[in-house]
Amino acid sequence: MAVSDARVEELEKLVSDLRHDIRGALASTRLTTDRMRTDPDPRMQKFAATIDRATDRILERLDATRTVVPPRR
């Protein structure tokens, strides 16, 4: 069963939009963890490091989608 060109284009746009939206949300996360890392409480610094690692994993997964669906122009 062949997928129509229109359907493929819809899916590519969806992936591209999701990538964009997720990156936007993660930018706020990065700003927050930047502030947490400067907190004198070592627990906050540890929480920030944990969040940063999770954020990095998400960003790596997003980057991996670029091999399947290149960024839209």
Which short descriptors sum up this protein?
73 residues, mainly alpha
What features would you describe in this structure?
The protein is mainly alpha-helical and 73 residues long. It has a domain of 28 residues. The radius of gyration is 17 Å and the shape is elongated. α1 runs antiparallel to α2. The relative contact order is 0.14. The chain is built from two helices and no strands.
Choose one word for the global shape.
elongated
- Beta-strand fraction estimate: under 5%
* Largest sheet entry: none
Give start-end ranges of low-pLDDT stretches: none
Distance separating the two termini = 29 Å
Quaternary state reads single chain
**SSE string, helix = H, strand = E?**
HH
Mean pLDDT: 92
Gyration radius, rounded: 17 Å
Helix content: over 70%
* Helical/strand content category: mainly alpha
Q: Give me the count of strands.
A: 0
Discrete helix count:
2
List the helices and strands and how they pair.
Layout lengths: L4 H33 L4 H24 L8
Helix pairs in contact: 1-2
Summarize the entry for a quick read.
The chain is mostly helical.
